[in-house]
Design a protein that fits this description.
Layout (H helix, E strand, L loop, with lengths): L8 H23 L4 H8 L3 H8 L11 H12 L4 H17 L2 H9 L8 H4 L5 E2 L2 E2 L1
Antiparallel strand pairs: 1-2
Length: 133
C-alpha cells in the first residue's frame, strides 16, 4: 500500500530499507548458526526484534530486486562484528542508491512527484571526503 503523503528518500531508508536489511541480515546470521542474543548484539538491537524479524512481523513491508538481494547475501557473509555490520549496511545503501533501487522502493511506499529522476534530485549521490559526488 502506497502512503498518500510524500516521504523523503532518507525517510524511506530509515523506515523501510534499514529494517528490511536488518531482517535479511538476521536471517542470514541465524542460518550460519548464530544465537538470537548474539545476532541482536551484533546488529545492536533488542533480542525480541530478532524474533519479530524471523516471524515476518517486522521488516517485510518492501521487496528488493534480485541485484540487491544478491548483494545482501554477499554482505551477510562479511558480517562478523558490529563494525563489519555497519560497513556492510553502508555498502548496501550505496548499492540501493546507485542502481536506482531507491526509486523502485520509493514507489512501493510513497507518492513520488512527476518527473522525479535521480540526476535531478541527487538521490544517487553520496558524500566523499567532504564533497558531494
Amino acid at each position: 500500500m502506497v502512503n498518500q503523503i510524500f516521504l523523503h528518500p532518507q525517510e524511506i531508508e530509515t523506515f523501510y530499507i534499514l529494517p528490511t536489511l536488518r531482517r535479511y541480515f538476521a536471517l542470514h546470521l541465524k542460518e550460519r548458526g548464530m544465537k538470537q542474543k548474539d545476532i541482536a548484539n551484533m546488529l545492536m538491537i533488542n533480542s525480541a526484534t530478532i524474533s519479530q524479524y524471523t516471524s515476518t512481523k517486522r521488516g517485510h513491508k518492501i521487496s528488493f530486486n534480485e541485484l540487491v538481494l544478491k548483494e545482501i547475501k554477499k554482505s551477510a557473509e562479511n558480517i562478523h562484528d558490529q563494525i563489519s555490520y555497519i560497513r556492510e549496511i553502508q555498502r548496501i545503501l550505496k548499492v540501493i542508491r546507485f542502481t536506482g533501487s531507491i526509486c523502485e522502493i520509493h514507489k512501493q511506499v510513497s507518492i513520488v512527484p512527476d518527473g522525479c529522476e535521480q540526476p535531478l534530485t541527487g538521490c544517487h549521490t553520496h558524500i566523499m571526503k567532504g564533497k558531494a559526488q
